[in-house]
Structure formats: structure tokens, C-alpha cells
Specification:
Elements (H helix, E strand, L loop, with lengths): L2 E3 L2 E3 L12 H6 L9 H7 L15 H15 L3 E6 L9 E8 L14 H19 L4 E2 L10 H7 L4 E2 L5 E2 L7 E3 L3 E3 L8
């Protein structure tokens, strides 16, 4: 049901943002100084220390359910756990999270286009800090470029399937999803998929 305020009607009729002259600039124009963006601040934030005493955990299945609940609470729309077979640092599991994305952050470089990447960085930052607080190793490589195998691991974790271009297609969001960097960890978990 639309709300009428005199000549205005909410939601706006027609396609969202169709006649907004500033929307394309907001989504596509990168900031003048990338160092001032929230994304760069999160990427440059240092990892915390690993708590010296490991927390006693339930079964890997229960721990996995706690990980997924926390990820959703932090803003992830999809969460899965993948087994890492040949990880060079010896991490056995990867926590894969994804958020809904109207714009692909790899293509839309503006502040508005980077919102899914910002949301995803927040989720991985909090999740990896929580795992370290439990006394286990966790890295999400925020400072690095986006994880190239993240979408493959998301498909392995059962979040969706890869299309011909190698992008994740989910049942709930289709291709309108952004997969962030994978949190590699030695936290005992149960792999999905």
C-alpha cells in the first residue's frame, strides 16, 4: 500500500531510482580519496590477538550452528562452511558469508556500489575477531584483494552454484549476491555441502 503525502507517493512509482540524476554518480563514481572510505579503514584495522586459552566447545555441529547464527546476526544473508583441502597455512575450514547486493562492488566503484562490500567486511571482521577470542586462529585477509576462490568455496559450502562466468548463483538472490573474503580457521567445525 502506498503512502500519500499530498502530491508525493511513497514508494515512488516506477523503477527505483529511475529518475534520480544523482543515483548513477553515487553508485559508480569512486571517492576522490579511497583512503577516507569506510572499506579502507576496516581493511587496515589490525587483527586482534588470539586468546591464549582455547575455549571448551560443544560438538563441531553445534559450534557450526553458533557460527552461522552470529554471522546472520552481524548482517550476513547466507553462511556456509567449506572444508579447505590444500590450504598453505594449514587451516582446515573456511567460513563463507555473503550479502545481498543490488550492485556488483567489482563494477560499481562508487560509495553506493560499495555498500555490499562494506557490509561483508564488517561481518568477516567481527567473525574472525570472535574466533580469535575463542582461542583459535582465524584470518580473513581483509587487506588483500577480494578472495578469488571465495565464490568457488561458497558453491562448495552449498550456498549456490557457479554459472559459466564463475559467479555464484543462489536460489534466494540469484546473482545479486556479494561473497566476501573467506575466514580461514582452525576452529573445529562441520563442513556443509
Amino acid at each position: 500500500m502506498a503512502l500519500r503525502l499530498g502530491p508525493l507517493r511513497i514508494p515512488w512509482p516506477g523503477k527505483a531510482h529511475a529518475d534520480d540524476p544523482y543515483w548513477a554518480h553515487f553508485v559508480n563514481a569512486p571517492p576522490a580519496d579511497v583512503a577516507n572510505s569506510v572499506i579502507e579503514m576496516i581493511r587496515k584495522a589490525p587483527d586482534g590477538n588470539i586468546f591464549p586459552t582455547k575455549t571448551e566447545l560443544h560438538t563441531p555441529e553445534i559450534t557450526s550452528s553458533h557460527v552461522k547464527e552470529l554471522a546472520v546476526y552481524c548482517g550476513a544473508d547466507l553462511v556456509g562452511i567449506a572444508r579447505l583441502v590444500a590450504d598453505p597455512d594449514g587451516y582446515p575450514f573456511g567460513i563463507v558469508t555473503a550479502v545481498r547486493a543490488d550492485e556488483d562492488p567489482r563494477e560499481a566503484r562508487g560509495v553506493g556500489g560499495q555498500v555490499p562490500a562494506q557490509n561483508e567486511l564488517y561481518v568477516t571482521f567481527v567473525m574472525s575477531a570472535w574466533v580469535r577470542e575463542l582461542g583459535f586462529r582465524a584470518t580473513d585477509d581483509r587487506a588483500a584483494a577480494p578472495d578469488l576462490e571465495a565464490e568457488r568455496l561458497a558453491a562448495q559450502a552449498g550456498l549456490g552454484k557457479l554459472n559459466a562466468a564463475g559467479h555464484l548463483v543462489t536460489p534466494k538472490f540469484g546473482t545479486r549476491v556479494h561473497v566476501g573474503n573467506v575466514i580461514r580457521t582452525d576452529l573445529p567445525l562441520a563442513a556443509d555441502g
